[in-house]
Design brief:
Elements: H1 28-41, E1 47-51, H2 55-67, E2 73-77, H3 95-100, E3 106-108, H4 113-125, E4 131-134, E5 155-158, E6 167-171, H5 176-188, E7 193-197, H6 201-205, H7 209-215, E8 223-226, H8 235-238, E9 243-245, H9 256-262, H10 267-275
Parallel strand pairs: 1-2, 2-4, 3-4, 6-7, 6-8, 8-9
Antiparallel strand pairs: 5-7
């Protein structure tokens, strides 16, 4: 249901051991545990996939992937209230913070297909840690620039015209589109914004201090972070003077576009919250 089926590769079963797709049914914990076992045995690269909210059921096995240095790839889709009509039971809120807090787990929440390609490259080549690819249900734009920038974990997607920006806007995933457009609206009001995409906290935090300073200079204290999940973790980047547009409640059942508007994930709200810093 999240489009990870390998077409033409067959289905593994008791009758046919040659198939490369293994169907688990609604057994998320067993799926992740078996993926660990397959990787520990050797000879295969393995991934498993489900809706992001169901990572709760896999958490014990995902923790063992991290503890055992097993580079299993987790493809976790439907990453926010954008799930829509399925309602709060299927809309992840705190799950991203939970995975980001797990030692040795690398988490990517890509903003477009280029960042997704970079995340997948990292997942299948790093060789030592599991990787969670947290992907959106909604259609996303494609941004200019080289996908390799995402392998830094965070990077300047659209820079300010000034050497020192008036404000830094940062986001991950689908909300990058909001800050990208908000920067144009702010420019019309005379505010020069830098747009920063941070698909992976872990990888960005592992960069040297010079690089991190080049992206998020300490001299710029006006900062806004946007992510349609819990705010937990973003304070390390926005500081005491910044603002976070997040979702620290459960979601609601309804059309995705209507929900994003209801919870303040709009260009207009990003602009309004940013203006409060001035």
């Amino acid at each position: 249901s999240n489009k990870t089926y390998m077409t033409g590769k067959g289905d593994f079963s008791a009758e046919d051991r040659s198939g490369r797709n293994l169907h688990f049914g609604v057994r998320e914990h067993a799926m992740a545990a078996i993926a660990n076992g397959m990787y520990a045995h050797g000879g295969l690269k393995v991934f498993c996939a489900t809706f992001f909210v169901f990572s709760d059921y896999m958490k014990g096995a995902m923790r063992l992937s991290s503890l055992m240095n097993l580079p299993v790839s987790y493809v976790l889709t439907h990453d926010s209230i954008g799930v829509g009509e399925d309602g709060p039971t299927h809309q992840p809120i705190e799950q991203l913070a939970a995975l980001r807090s797990m030692p040795n787990m690398t988490v990517f929440r890509p903003a477009d297909s280029k960042e997704t390609a970079a995340a997948w490259y990292y997942a299948v080549t790093n060789g030592s840690t599991p990787t969670s690819l947290v992907l959106t249900r909604q259609k996303l734009p494609l941004y200019d620039g080289c996908a390799k920038r995402a392998l830094k974990g965070g990077y300047i997607l659209k820079d300010s015209k000034k050497e020192i920006p008036d404000v830094i806007l940062m986001a991950s995933g689908s909300e990058v589109e909001l800050i990208y457009k908000a920067a144009d609206e702010l420019a019309a009001r005379g505010i020069d914004a830098r747009v920063v995409s941070i698909p992976s906290f872990e990888i960005f935090n592992a960069q040297d201090e010079a690089y991190k300073e080049s992206v998020l200079p300490n001299s710029v204290r006006k900062r806004v972070a946007v992510e349609a999940l819990t705010s937990f973790g973003w304070y390390q980047y926005v500081g005491l003077d910044g603002r976070i547009i997040s979702l620290d409640t459960f979601g609601a059942s309804g059309n995705a576009d209507a929900l994003f508007k209801q919870f303040g994930f709009t260009v207009e709200n990003v602009v309004n919250e940013t203006m409060k810093l001035f």
